[in-house]
Amino acid sequence: MRNIIRADLYRIVRGKGLYITLAVLLLIIAMQIAGGLQMNTGVTDMYIYTEDGLEFVNPFELAEEDLTFDSIIHQVTGKEVPSHFMGSTANLLYFLLPLIIFIGAVDFSSGAVKNTLSGGVSRVKYYFSKLIMACVWCVLLLVFYVFTAMLVATLVNGFGGTLDGEFVSYFAKVFFMQLWLCLACTCVANFILFAFRKSSGVIGGNIAFFFGPSLIFLLLAQIHDWFENLFFYDLNMSIGLMPQVNLMPAGDVLRSVLVGAGYITVAIAGGYALFKKAEIK
Question: pTM here?
Fold first, then answer.
């Protein structure tokens, strides 16, 4: 397993794909912060936590004054990155897809996986080596995303306050909760990789996973309000809600942790079960 991980790491670091992915991500971060984040107020419907819990609101109804440019564009400071910028952390998973392809899909398309398995490597070691690599890159991407955003925001707009214990505590809550849920998404992406075993399947399957549940739950919510509860089981939405972690009831935070654990368990077990029975050509 160690040799597989080392070989994958060497191949990714030596290739251009990683650096192109990071360069595009850095460009998007810089453009968002330099140009100002478009706030949700007055732009879209959204879910927010209020004193009564999670509510679906129309931000237009929250505005007491006419919307102006300043009311929908916000220059984020370094200290505001966790509360504003990290609301879009789920988009980071799109940048994980190329790395998932580099880690595993390339092996299947080139036939390298067959040579590896015939060389004496068990399927369980092969499967978990790819999973570990995917999770490592997920962690590194999130660290790069968050701390680069804080650095760029501080350089452009200043830090906007002091680095106190309250900020560190809040930042840690948001970061580690999002990390847990991003790792759950990574396990699902790895499951899709071993289910389809080709680049097109990885891309199509993950896009369906990112968008499908949200669209289905939204349609069901139009039928009856009860179906809004299903949004708690959508990883994409859960990641976006984490900047409001201080407003979330303890039960909702625990549910997010358990939902992430459920996705991780099912994805790992299901992916290995499919790979164990798959015919490798």
Answer: 0.89
